[in-house]
Automatic annotation (TrEMBL):
Keyword Protein transport: no
Superkingdom of origin organism: Bacteria
PROSITE patterns xrefs: ATP_GRASP
GO molecular function terms attached to this record: ATP binding; metal ion binding
Annotated protein name in UniProt: ATP-grasp domain-containing protein
Claim: Ribosomal protein is one of the keywords in the record: no
UniProt cross-references to InterPro entries, sorted A to Z: ATP-grasp
Residue ranges annotated for the ATP-grasp domain, each copy included: 120-321
Keywords: ATP-binding, Nucleotide-binding
Length: 422
């Protein structure tokens, strides 16, 4: 058995980079694999071995590759960085588990968490609120439910698992626009057969009430739950995203964990049977907390939680190896950490770009640009960056180069997202 090694996939994910840094700093040998040789995580100083694997668009080939590598390196830890691999590892848990140390629950558990329709049913069972959401069914825009919708609404996929095309969500302004937007969605959204063969109908979209609070009030609770129900968490507020209406988080501020919400998340994990690392997102509406996502895996801003004393990669490491003593010790450390109230997380390169371009285009007022620059200056000493690290500088350089390349290849998307904030 290779007693101190981990295989990380998804080298372009910021969560994978955070995991590599955490493992490497704690003496665990890091092998990283991706089908993109330019992926940012591969350039971390903590990665000792770089591999190329089959495209994730060929999931069965990828599983075969993983099995072959695991046969040669038994006992290596394998843990997912994204929805696709979270589901794939669970689906092939028995086969992969013969060679790897894993901490993946069953496919049914992962499918429940990543399929919004099934997740909402589970939330109802434990008293967690969710936005009003409906399946349109085969009738689509002619479904009887449409007459009861309050526009605008959000047209969104039931899941992101093996979604090979499409968008996170489409805002539909009125009933007349629903039919055309539904056609546009279906023309864009494509799912790999490995998922739809097992879950027919999962490719159909859902229609959800559009809540403006989602633009500025997203509260995240992330953490770890063991098979025995031990639970530790951190909380944060997403304070800036791009584009602003339906977008990716740029800046987060640390918050105190709300105990009532924590109890409900514990109940959800117990009800479904989930164990492992997680990130959940809630829309804040006054005293209400509406769950919109539960990610059963490593996640983008995991580096923020590692910096706040919650070393999730190590918790997964000890739990997968059934090392009760070390797991308890790491849980105790995480529970004893104390916040200063100034902790923030930011992708500084993207923040600078958004402030400059939206300031020039008029999409952000001069006073708002000034406010966000002051926000970063005030928190700089306690800020965790998505990719920048003075002890591991190459990933940030590759990250900047990748974004420049992306902008050159997709200028319309760049202008729409970064300049026009759409």
């Amino acid at each position: 058995m290779n007693a101190m090694s981990v295989l990380l996939l998804g080298a372009d994910y910021y969560g994978t980079l955070a995991a590599a840094r955490c493992y490497g700093k704690n003496g665990i040998d890091v092998t990283m694999a991706d089908d993109n040789p330019q992926a940012r995580g591969l350039y971390s100083r903590w990665v000792t071995r770089k591999l190329s694997h089959p495209s994730i668009k060929s999931p069965n080939d990828l599983v075969d590759w993983l099995v072959q590598w695991g046969e040669r390196h038994p006992g290596t830890l394998l843990y997912p960085p994204n929805d696709h691999l979270s589901w794939l590892f669970a689906e092939h848990r028995d086969r992969l588990g013969k060679h790897y140390e894993m901490y993946s629950p069953s496919e049914a558990v992962i499918a429940t968490l990543l399929d919004k329709s099934r997740l909402h049913e589970a939330c109802a069972a434990v008293g967690i609120e969710v936005p009003e959401t409906h399946d349109l069914g085969p009738e689509g825009a002619n479904s009887p439910i449409v007459s009861r919708l309050k526009f605008p609404v959000l047209l969104k996929p039931r899941t992101q698992i093996f979604m090979e095309g499409g968008v996170k969500g489409i805002i539909v302004e009125d009933r007349a626009s629903l039919g055309p937007e539904l056609e546009r969605y279906r023309s864009m959204a494509r799912f790999n057969k490995v998922l739809t063969d097992k879950h027919p109908g999962i490719a159909e979209p859902m229609v959800q009430e559009y809540l403006t609070a989602a633009e500025t009030n997203i509260f995240s609770v992330s953490g770890f739950v063991s098979k025995d129900g031990e639970f530790v968490a951190r909380a944060a507020m997403k304070v800036l995203q791009r584009p602003r209406k339906v977008g990716i988080g740029l800046c987060f501020e640390g918050r105190e964990v709300e105990l009532a919400l924590l109890d409900k998340l514990q109940a959800l994990c117990k009800h479904i049977g989930y164990h492992g690392a997680f990130e959940s997102e809630f829309i804040v509406m006054g005293d209400r907390r509406l769950l919109i996502d539960f990610n059963p895996r490593f996640y983008s801003q995991m580096g923020f939680d590692v910096a706040r004393g919650l070393r999730l990669p190590l918790l997964v490491w000890h739990a997968a190896r059934s090392d009760r003593s070390m797991l308890s010790r790491e849980l105790d450390k995480a529970q004893s950490w104390k916040a200063t109230g100034r902790e923030v997380y930011c992708h500084k390169t993207m923040l600078d770009l958004v402030l400059t371009l939206q300031g020039l285009s008029g999409q952000m007022s001069r006073s708002d640009v000034k406010r966000w620059r002051k926000w970063y200056a005030d928190h700089r000493s306690a800020a965790t960056d998505a990719v920048r690290d003075p002890e591991d500088q190459k990933p940030a350089m590759i990250d900047a180069m990748q974004w420049v390349s992306h902008f050159a290849k997709h200028p319309r998307s760049f202008v729409r997202s970064f300049v026009l904030n759409r």
